Every structure is written in structure tokens, then in C-alpha cells.
Amino acid sequence: MIRRVLRRLGEMPLWLVVIGAASVFTFGVYVTVVWPAFQMAPITPEGRAHPYTAVENTGRLIYFREGCWYCHTQQVRPVAADRALGPPALPGDYYYDVPQPMGTERTGPDLFHVGSRIPSYIWLKDHLVNPQKEVPGSVMPSYSYLSVGDQDALVRYLLSLR
Amino acid sequence: MAMRYITWSLIWVAILMGVGLVASAQFFWPELWRGIPYMSFGRLRPVHSQGILYGWLSLAMIGGWLYILPRLTRSPLYRPDIARRALFVWNLALVFGMLGVMAGLTQGYEYGDWLWPSDILFVIALFTLAYQLVQSVRMRREQTVYVSIWYMLGTLVWFSGVYLIGNTPLFSGMNQMNVNWFIGHSIVGLWFTTGILALAYYLFPKVFGQPIWSHRLSLIGFWFIGTFYIQNGPHHLLFSPMMYWLQSWSIVASIFLFIPVWAVLANFWGSVRGRWQAVSTEPSARWLLTGWAFYFLTCLQGPLQALRSVNAYTHFSHWVVGHAHLALLGFASAFLYAAIYYIVPHVAHRPLFSRRLAAVHYWLYLVGTSFMVIDLTAAGLIQGAIWRTGLPFIASVIELQPYWVLRSWTGILVLAGQLIMTYNVWRTFHPARVARPLGAASAE
User: Fold this and answer.
1) By CA distance, what is A144's nearest residue in B?
2) Which superfamily is assigned to A54-159 in CATH?
3) Is residue B34 scored above 90 in pLDDT?
């Protein structure tokens, strides 16, 4: 039986291979993208989610423009490593986020609740310009090249992450 | 036409490995480019990561396809001018994307970092190329369809879908994260893996002089890869607020990948068995064996790190960076080097300029890549350990210093090997016209 199926498989005409390939692909997309999209449709803002003010939003876009998210995550997980970082993330936490800021690497510390962990405007701003002075051993690049307005917006965005 | 793509891929890879090296230096020398926004790490990283995907791996792979396709169909390529124009558009997309992120234009989306104009250019190039390749297959004179053609057509179908869906700007929040990893994982799974396996299925029998071991096994691999790779994306979201069933299902789909991977590995082994002498006669043989080994390691590590218990320890750490380099610099690049070292003498109609330089490239690459992966994996395990102790976060940064320095050294080895290869390929096409001075080292 299996042998027969395999022989048939090898004799498929090419157009059927293409249709077959498209079919298994569509099935995979349905299961892992479309279906989840329907399930996530009713998500409402919760946790730290809040509409960003104009200046926070400017800061948020700078956060992406400068690629901060390549080294900083914004995702607290219910695992041992994240115990000190505050309550774990909820689906609605990211309600207002496009692009999403969850990140993939934690070269620098997680910033999910940075606004409550480090609620100091002055410290965050000084750290942005002189990371090594504020945190000896840090490898963060200096963002002294940002304009004063950009630095202000970025810090206000960080403070809004609570 | 194949050589045009390969030439451009060699130009891009030298630049982009250099960018990676420059970016990596900032880990132990953060003041390096102080005050220069374009060189800041957050802007260079997407140049390196996206650039290697679309500048080096994609162009070299398409170059390989354009070489093997006429041989598998026993008929010339359909309208070679399409490939030439697509290459121009592709390069335009690369230049725009890279300069764009350096100037601060980004979509803020891993593996979709570059701004939409470059997406559109890529889509135009990809679809015209797909049209050309499909037409070439339709006009084939050889009636037996070899499995490489299956893989090539499957790859075109899958990646077109992946690219279009993955770059659709319709999603937000958690949903966008899901789509992000749908494309992030599928670029590797259904573009590079399947596309490069098409080349490997051609190269193993050719280089080792033994026909494909089992045609049926290759087809089993084809259908399992197509069915399960596409469902792997959410395993990047373990312990996130993503639905639990989706995380679990993606783990199951990851484990399923053992089937096609081992089918492919066993099949290639069938061509190698008893033909080891090829290693001493064919420069690309050792690259194929190395790619085989790296593919085995990548696909052993991949499903294992998708398990929750392992993931809780390794996620977000440099372990993942190590895995990415094992897959793309290890598996994918080794097979592409095999393809290039095989194709160049055939296209140039003369032997490779220097087998010794090819060997030097190989060993620089092997030592560099192996130590890079070991180094990053160890660094990742250390990060994972420190995060669990509750020490201040900076402890995990300070502890990694020596590993970052070593990582850059391994990068220098890989880049040096790459430049040697470029020189070797160039000299194969442009042999010296003047007679060698007496006593100069012969190039074998």
C-alpha cells in the first residue's frame, strides 16, 4: 500500500506537484496565520497598553529607527530568567503597537516595564548620551547624535512603558 | 547568466561580512563610531542580517539554479534577458534597502526590516524570475523530471506566498509578531533550505559520481518539508502571550522536521558512500560534506531548542545568534560554496586558478565558522545562567566580553577566506597573460 502511494507520488505530473505544494502551503498558512488571526481579533487593551501621546509616539518610532529593539526585548515571560522583570506580558499589552516591540535578543536588559523599574527622566536621558558613565561595563552605543527633541521623545516613550 | 548572479553575490558577501565584522566590533568597543548615526549598531545589524539573506545567499542560490536548470531540462533558459533585468532590479532593492536602514528608514520588523519600496522591487524581480524558470521547465526537452526541479518549483511557490503574506502591513500587536515569525522562519525553511537542497541534489551525484540513492526518499522529504516547515514560525514565540495551542503545535511541527531532514541526509550519504576519493580530486566535495554536517547539526539543534524546557534557557540569548550562523554560514553557505566551486570551472572552461587557495579558504572558513558557533553558543548558555541567578543584568554583559572579542576574530577568518575565494574565482576567469617570473610559486 505504502509502496503504491510512493510510486504514484513519483509519477505525479509537474502541474500537480505545483498544486500540491500550494495546497500544503495554504493549509499551513491557515493553521498558523489565518486561524490565529481570527482568534486574536477580540483582543482588547490590557496591562500596560495605553494610547501613546504624540511625543511618546515620536519616541516610539525613534526606538525602531535606531534599532533599539535588536538588543532590547519588551516581553516578560513566565520563566525563571524573567522573575525580576515584573508581571509577564498579556496579549492586550501590545494592543497599540505597530510595529510590535517584543524583540528577539536580550543583549541589553528587557524594557517591558522600564518606566516603573527606572522612573527617572534625568537618569534615562543621561544614560542615552553616556551609557558607560551611568552603567560601567555597558556596551550600548551613545545616542549623543540624536537631537535634544528626539532624546526627549525617546525617554518619554520609555517612561510610558509601565 | 548564472555567473552574473554569482559574481554579484560574491561582491555583496564581501561587503556584508565586513558590515557584520564592523557591527560585532561595537560589542567590545562601543565608542567606535560615536556620534555617527549611520554606523550605530542598531542600524548596521539589519544591513548585515537582511543583506546576507538577499544579497549573498539568494543571489548565489539563483545563480546556481540558472546553471543547473538548462542541464536538467536539456534545453536553454527561456529568455535569459529576464534574468538579467531581474538581477538589476534585485540589486536596486538591495542598495535601497541597505542605504535606507542606515539612514533610518525601517519597517522595524526582523527579516522584513527594509522599507516597502525595496519589498516591491524584490517582488517584481522574484515574480519575473519565477515566470522565466517556470517557462524554462515547461519548454524542457528532457522528459524525466529530476527532484531538483520539484524543489525549485516548490520553493518558488512557497517563497512567493511567504514573502507576500509576511510583508503585508495589515497586522498589529501579537498578530504581527506571529506573521513576523511566519516570514522569519520560512525565509530560511522554504527559500534557502529547499532552494539550496535543489542545488545539493544536483551536486552530490555529480561531484561524487554516483546517482541519487533513492528518488522516493527525496520525494518524501519534499512533501514533509513543504507541509511542516511553514508551520514552524510560532516556535519563536514560546512563553509569549501567544495562544498556547499554537506554541505547542509549532513544537510538534518542528519535531516533524526530523523526517525530511534525515531523509535528505540519508539520501546524500547514499551518493557519498564509497566515493570518498572525490575529496582529493574535486574542490567542492569537501564543501558538500561540510554542508552535510552543518545541516545535520542545525536541524538537530533547531527542533531541540524549540522544546519549552530548552527554550526557557536559551531564548533571547546569543545561543540563537549561534544557531542562525550555524544554519546560514554553516549549512547554506557551505552548499553555495560547493556550487560556486563546481560551477566556476565549468563556465570558465578551465580548471580553478588555484586548488591550494581553495583549500586555504576552506580551512579559514571551517575554523572561523566552527569557533564562531561554539563561541556564541557558549555565550548564550552563560547569559541564560546569569539571568536565572537574579544578578544585576550588567553581569551578563561584562561576562560576555571575551566571547565577543573571539567572535570578531572568527569573523576575520571567515572574511579572509571569502576574499581569497573571490580572488580565486576572479583569476580563474582572468588568468595572467604575462609569463610567470622564474621561481614563482606554481598554482598547481
Assistant:
1) B35
2) Cytochrome c-like domain (1.10.760.10)
3) no
Nearest to B177 among A96, A100, A142 (CB): A100
Does residue B386 register a pLDDT over 70? yes
CB-based burial label for B440 (10 Å; 0-12, 13-18, 19+)? exposed
Name, in order, each residue with C-beta under 8 angstroms of B406's C-beta and a sequence gap of 6 or more. B371, B375
Domain ranges for chain A: 2-40, 54-159
Q: Do A99 and B46 touch (CB under 8 A)?
A: no
Whether B362 shows a pLDDT value over 50: the answer reads yes
Cell (9 digits) for A126: 543621561
The alpha carbon of residue B65 is apart from the nearest alpha carbon of chain A, in Å, by 17
Mean of pLDDT values over B144-169: 93
User: To 5 degrees, how large is the angle CA B167–CA B170–CA B175?
Assistant: 90
C-alpha B233: how far from its chain's center? 17
**B22: part of which helix (H) or strand (E)?**
helix B2-25
Residue in B106, B182, B243 closest to A39 by CB:
B243
- Chain A residues touching B229 at Cβ < 8 A: 28
User: Does the structure show a pLDDT above 50 at B444?
Assistant: no
Choose among B367, B369, B370, B362: nearest CA to B337.
B362
CA–CA distance, B1 with B70 (Å, rounded to integer): 11
Q: Which residues of chain B make contact with A45, given a CB cutoff of 8 A?
A: none
| H or E, element range at B236 | none
**Whose grid coordinates read 560589542?**
B27
Rounded-to-integer distance, Cα B372 and Cα B369, Å: 5
Secondary element (H or E) of residue B173:
helix B173-187
Instruction: Please indicate whether, in this complex, the C-beta atoms of B175 and A89 are within 8 angstroms of each other.
Output: no
Check pLDDT > 90 for residue B369: yes
Chain mean pLDDT for chain B: 94
Residues of B in contact with A66 (CB under 8 A): 37, 40, 42-43, 104
B145 contacts on A by Cβ (under 8 Å): 14
Q: Which residues of chain A have pLDDT under 50?
A: none
Distance of residue A155 Cα from the nearest chain B Cα, in angstroms: 17
Specify the higher pLDDT residue, B440 or B85.
B85
Q: What is the pLDDT of residues B229-276, one digit of tens each?
A: 999 999 999 999 999 999 999 999 999 999 999 999 999 999 999 999
- Nearest residue in chain B measured CA to CA from A39: B243
Residues B10-19, mean pLDDT to the nearest whole number? 97
Terminal alpha carbon distance of chain B? 29
- Please say if the pLDDT value at position B443 is more than 50: no
